[in-house]
Design a protein that fits this description.
Blueprint lengths: L8 H11 L5 H10 L4 H8 L17 E5 L14 H7 L7 E3 L5 E3 L2 E6 L5 E6 L13 H12 L7 H4 L9 E5 L2 E5 L7 H4 L27 E7 L3 E6 L18 E5 L5 H10 L4 E2 L8 H6 L8 E13 L9 H9 L3 H9 L3 E3 L22 H10 L6 E8 L3 H14 L4 E8 L1 H7 L5 E6 L7 H6 L19 H11 L4 H18 L2 E11 L5 E2 L15 E2 L2
Parallel strand pairs: 1-10, 1-11, 14-15
Antiparallel strand pairs: 2-3, 4-5, 5-7, 6-7, 8-9, 9-10, 12-16, 12-17, 13-17, 18-19
Helix pairs in contact: 1-2, 2-3, 10-12, 11-13, 16-17
């Protein structure tokens, strides 16, 4: 451990919790790095094995990587609705921090940070050796500008709900060109992790005017060559990137990446992968087992598995009838035969859910029993709500999410005995994303987040004016839930936070606006010629040090 490295006092408490087996080594690393300790120092402290060094003799430079990806409409990274466009653009635009495949957060454009003992003042030091691809020098002004974009209500970023719950523009302080401070409204442990949300790509404050395609000036290892919506995105390697490879030369190793839009149907993409026409399918928008099952015996393709908190959310708009009545919401949730849904929709590749947005492997998860399938009780609740003769509802789903369509079909069948008559309205995935916050009843994909506090702050709270935050698609706001969530977000002790989550989960189960029937295992399945890659729980692409065996 470096002598100059300052240790937050809470890290010693975390080490005591580890020694008493209240924390795993992975959880210790997660929290110690969030508090500003380097991953190397934290790993040394607990005997965590460090990755083997990549040697120059092992790598090759050059080549073109071909990826199947839907090339979606983009303008502002803070407004991404889903991961897919961030995967192509993260080759150009980078993040202040980086949360790896093990959910450990590392320095990135910010080379270090520290938190006050009360977790309300955070100091970030930015790197001094970084330039944007147009030659501009990266400084603290770019970080402050980017954060202000998140906090600007006119931008309508999901980060307004997450970061805006504890920070406003008055809390941003520029110390000098290479340091800034955040003065929070309340304690928050996960600030560095929030800076790696896929919508948090850092912008050039001198040139960005609302459309990243018009000023594609990022700090990343590639530059934008071509972007044609619905067709292709081509990025090409920089020669002056700030990170060096194992051979001492600037990264990246790959010369060019082509993201090719092959549509949303998986069959032709799988065929192209198996034939070698493409090297990888971007499955971030459709992470089901179909690709894995199709290629697992192919000698030319790797299958890299990862368990995740990715899920499908059955969401109900509480500001619209009949979902404004909690009895109706509970009736629908009771019609989920979770074991059957997981088996038929997702081939059993995951875990059953319990109608709250906390994954069983989140550190603060409070164990609850799986709600049983109870159509008789659902029928009784509908009668109490004034629907003794049953109820007709429309359920909106994206047609290219095959597991969601199957989920809807199973739910329709199993809700019929309760008197819920479900009309499934399928539509192209792109059309669903255009209206996902507006439909009264739908099923929305939500990606993995490493802490249980993160999605609730994105999706189930209101802003300071009492308006649901941008990604609160159900408009559900519960004062008791919000107060407990604030408390949990500033509580470092995992056991104490878990006790708070016992209450949070119960509230969302019994009077919330969502059903969660299953959590999803995911896989990354690249051609074996793509080297030095690891599957990430979010299926994000981290290809700075990837290379092609050509």
């Amino acid at each position: 451990m470096k002598a100059k490295e300052t240790i937050h006092p809470a890290i010693l408490e975390l080490k005591n919790d580890l020694d008493r087996r209240k924390l795993s080594r992975r959880e210790f690393l997660r929290y110690a790095t969030l508090l500003g300790m380097s991953a190397a120092a934290a790993g040394q402290m607990v005997g965590w094995p460090w990755p083997k060094k990549l040697w120059a003799a092992d790598i090759k430079r050059g080549g073109v990587l071909k990826i199947s990806q839907q090339i979606q409409k983009i303008d502002h990274p803070a407004r991404y609705s889903w991961l897919m466009p961030s995967n192509s653009m993260r080759m150009i635009f980078e993040y202040m921090t980086l949360t790896d495949a093990d959910n450990i957060t590392h320095p990135y454009l910010c080379e270090r940070w520290s938190a006050s003992e009360d977790l309300k003042t955070w100091t970030f030091d930015v790197r001094k050796d970084v330039k944007f691809n147009n030659g501009d020098t990266f400084t603290a002004d770019d970080c402050i500008f980017t954060i202000n974009q998140w906090l600007n209500e006119d931008v309508k970023s999901s980060l307004l709900g997450l970061v805006g719950s504890y920070l406003d523009p008055t809390g941003l302080e520029k110390v000098n060109d290479h340091q800034f401070k955040l003065h929070l409204k309340r304690p928050e442990i996960a600030v560095p992790e929030h800076f790696f949300q896929y919508t948090a790509q850092v912008l050039n404050h001198r040139t960005f005017e609302g459309d990243m395609k018009k000023a594609p000036h990022g700090t990343g290892p590639f530059t934008l060559d071509t972007y044609k919506e619905g067709e292709i995105c081509i990025v090409k390697a920089r020669k002056d990137y700030w990170q060096a490879g194992a051979d001492g030369k600037p990264l990246p190793y790959i010369e060019e990446i082509r993201f090719i839009d092959m549509g949303g149907e998986l069959a032709p993409q799988i065929a192209a992968l198996k034939s070698g026409e493409i090297d990888l399918i971007d499955a971030s928008d459709n992470p089901g087992p179909q690709i894995m099952a199709a290629v697992k015996n192919d000698a030319h393709i790797q299958v890299l598995p990862v368990p995740t908190a990715t899920t499908r959310v059955l969401r109900m708009r509480v500001d619209m009838k009949p979902w404004s009545d909690n009895r109706v919401r509970m009736a629908l949730k009771l019609c989920q035969n979770r074991e059957k849904i997981l088996a038929l929709a997702y081939q059993g590749e995951g875990l059953q859910g319990q109608d709250f947005h906390v994954y069983p492997k989140h550190p603060e998860y409070c164990e609850k029993s799986i709600p049983p399938y109870q159509p008789d009780k659902a029928k009784q609740l509908l009668a109490e709500a004034g629907f003794a003769n049953g109820l007709d509802v429309n359920l909106a789903v994206g047609s290219e999410w095959t597991d969601i369509v199957r989920y809807a079909e199973v739910l329709k069948q199993d809700a019929a005995p309760a008197g819920l008559r479900i009309n499934i309205q399928t539509m192209p995935t792109s059309q669903y994303w255009e209206k996902w916050t507006e439909v009264d009843l739908g099923v929305t994909p939500w990606t993995h987040r490493p802490l249980g506090t993160m999605v609730p702050n994105l999706a189930y709270i209101a802003d300071e004016e009492g308006k649901p935050v941008p990604w609160n698609e159900t408009r559900w706001v519960d004062e008791e839930f919000s107060a407990l969530l604030d408390k949990a977000s500033g509580t470092l002790d995992v056991e104490q936070r878990r006790q708070i989550f016992c209450q949070l989960e119960e509230i969302q189960m019994t009077r919330g606006s969502i059903g969660i029937a299953y959590w999803m295992n995911t896989w990354m399945c690249p051609n074996k010629k793509l080297k030095n890659v690891k599957a990430h729980p979010n299926l994000v692409f981290l290809f700075n040090e990837a290379w092609l065996d050509i």
